[in-house]
Amino acid sequence: RDAHRFALSYRWVIEQAPLQAYASALVFALAGSLIKACFKAEEPDWIRTKPVVEADWNACLQTLEGHGNSVCSVAFSPDGQRLASDSDDVTVKI
Q1: Residue 40: which of 49, 50, 29 has the closest Cα?
Q2: Which residue intervals correspond to the WD repeats (predicted)?
Q3: Which residue in 6, 11, 49, 52 has its CB near the most CB atoms, within 10 A?
Q4: Contact assessment for residue 93 and residue 67, using Cβ atoms and an 8 Å cutoff
């Protein structure tokens, strides 16, 4: 669960510089996570200033982007596999 939430939360960094995930994942892992507890000794010591991290995940799983204006409505497909949104920019995103 922690790894999945980490990937969702830091997706933008992983997409831009994927190898950074290997070097800094433990630094940014939540203070109360199982991963942090098990591998604390493996944290890179060359990173001198470490960020203050939350103890647990917040309720937000993912933020979707792409509309150029306010989103008017969203709806799931009947099978729950897709999400559609429409916007004041006169676009629909699926």
Answers
A1: 29
A2: 64-94
A3: 6
A4: yes
Residues in the chain: 94
Exposed / middle / buried, residue 29 (Cβ in 10 Å: 0-12, 13-18, 19+): buried
pTM: 0.49
> With 0-12 CB in 10 A as exposed, 13-18 as middle and 19+ as buried, what is 90?
exposed
Distance CA 46, CA 24 (A): 11
DSSP letters for the chain = -HHHHHHHHTHHHHHH-TTHHHHHHHHHS-TT-HHHHHHGGGS-TT--SPPP--SS--S--------SS-EEEEEE-TTSS-EEEEETTS-EE-
Q: Closest Cα to residue 8, out of 60, 74, 66?
A: 60
